[in-house]
Protein 1
Amino acid sequence: MEHMEWQHLVIFAAAMVLGWVSFIYFWPRLLLYAYKRAILGQGFGDGPVPVNTLYAERQAHFADPLHVPDSGSNLMNTGVNRDTLLTAGWLDLGKGPQILHVPDVAGRYYSVQFTDASKNINFAYVGKRTTGTEAGAYLITGPGWKGAVPQGVSQISSPNNSVLVVGRVFVENDRDLPTAYGLTKQIQLSPWTQP
């Protein structure tokens, strides 16, 4: 009888460990999948955001997050971040490399993070802490891409063709919002084809 109790305990413990490992492994991937579907299908209140496009959080939404228009999306209301404007998009590098263009932000904090959606790992950043605040261009390439990087452009190699891009631009105060929004709108993607 005692032997049977140990068997049940071992089976229960194994099931619990397997359950936790599965949760830890799959939960972040499920969240990223839901975020991707929301971006590509619903956008941020103005309709879907096409693949390989960045969409900036609306200035009015940032200024009054509690009174989002009925047509708005709650996608950007996912935290307590109230000092940076957000821009987001989804890349499909299987269609070819993309060039990220960032403006000169004159010392202001900003960042653009690149997340491998298959592993939920941030693999690169562009911004004040990593690349500085001057204007720049970054060639984002998929795995195994071969080609020449244009002069004056830095390469960011992605481990996956599917990439979540999230950018942030610091807003100092209410009077600074239009300036920060203008800079956020200048963070853009464009397709690149090798000459």
Protein 2
Amino acid sequence: MKKQKHDENVPEQEEIMNDVENQPTENNNENTESSERTAEQIVDDLEVMTQKCSELNDKNLRLMAEFDNYRKRTLKERSELIKTAGENILVNMLPLVDDFERALKAMETSEDINAVKDGVDLIYNKFIAFLTQNGVKEIPTENEAFDTDLHEAITTFPAPDEAMKGKIIDCVSKGYTLNEKVIRFAKVVVGE
């Protein structure tokens, strides 16, 4: 079908071509010049567009490479941070280790048990202060209501009175939070 239409259009196209050829020569020259100018402009526009495309492609490649370098750098920094995150805390704990070593030496030679107890109490208080400075807090348990978000019941025990039902009777192991997040649940005995 298309071929028939094409064949039908051929005489029309020939007529148009004959009309163009029969026009005066000056007009024909102007058409040629304008078609040449437009062809030159098209070639120039094509070159400009090709240059812009290559510039954009280059910018895109550089941006992708820059982002990839950024991603690798941040991954490296994060892994180094994870490796050394506890370094500051451990460095600050070293004086406590020194205190314990001095206390152990003093226990070997000291005959005054009260002095040794006082020294251990000082080290304990220093350690608790260190934990508090670093955001570690003890979870309160004495006469507190049992809370599954803070406490872990290891057993239940008959309550001595009605007021102690559902409350903590005894703490087997203290619990701690770090900046309001539970890092160890308090192991408790609950009254029933």
Protein 3
Amino acid sequence: MGDVLAARSQMAVSLGFHILFAVVGIAMPVLMVIAEARWRRTGDAMYLELAKRWAKGTAILFAVGAVSGTVLSFELGLLWPGFMRFAGAIIGMPFSLEGFAFFAEAIFLGVYLYGWSRISARAHIAAGVLVALSGAASALFVVLANAWMNSPAGFQLVNGAPTDVDPVAAMLTPAAFPEVLHMLLAAYAATGFAVAGIHGFMLLRDQRNAFHRRALVVALIVGTPAAILQPLSGDISARYVAQWQPPKLAAMEGQFRTEAGAPLRIGGVPDVAAQRTRWAFEIPHGLSLLAFHDPQAVVRGLDAVPRRDWPPVPVVHIAFQVMVGLGTLLAVVGIWVAIAAWRRTDLAANRWLMRAVVVASPMGFVCIEAGWTVTEVGRQPWVIYGVMRTADAVTPMPGLIVPFVLISALYCFLGVIVAWLLYDLVMRSPIAREGDATISPAAA
């Protein structure tokens, strides 16, 4: 059990660090392409400055993401040999395709960074678009592999070994669409609002700064629609979990008993010994309605599965509540932004809205960390749901605490460097007022 805990802890730290850079790598290229397109259309110098700064930020985050992703690839083989031995032939295709997407992203990012005055405007914009598409494709293929772990398919199990492997069927499992949709929207919402929050904070100090005004608008163009749509994708994901992973849903909602017309719980702390969720606000029939669109539907509780197959209920429930709560607040702020934009309000002049955007800026990343906790911890004790237990997939060796400490220290070191570089990019931004300067695409 100690080996399992150490391996899971190390993988959790690695994934928790890497995913932050992965989601920013998905969304930042979209911001830089929008900024460049606006510059080429308007000649506004601030959009050009934004595009170049965001391209530098994307390069920094891409490099760190490559390092942390390489560490993860080694950890899969070193910490989870049982899993890789069983699943390698099945999920090899999405991982291989992810590698192609990663290389494509690196190539086109290089073209974008060094091609400003060397290739045509259309080719340069196209390179940026391909960076954005490659980043999204990379995420898609990794999430498809994770979706297979949650709903394994595309093989036959004979004497405990997979046979008749169909890699395409393995990528198109019931979990594929809900997970991919939820992950991509989360990436755009989290990154868009994080960037908007940074520039919103600067606008609270200098409302007329043209650079931060342009940055705020572009960031909200990306973050607002994703934040508003995210609860809808969450509903799709929850209904998938209700059908295919009932123990996970029961842990998410603190539902210990199987019952018709199950209530929806807001907050609360599950008491596993007493098999009840204490101090929760309950909405009668709410869970049955949301999970099955039927207020009288039967929801399977944890009592429907053996105790040894229960996930860590308090961890899953609290992480789920954090994700839903902060995701809802982010959507509310997104709706507020959308209404203000529809009314053609000067967003930067609305100080209450700017404060809300600043407060909301870290929420998307917290939601992502909480959501992955729900996904991974909620699947326990299975590494491949219903097929292989986590304890059967781990490396049976002592001393895992040493690499855990070393790798955690590496991530802290990289995190400090990245934070400083990005802080420098933001704090050394130009001081300019509306209409101070324009730069034509030809002159650049």
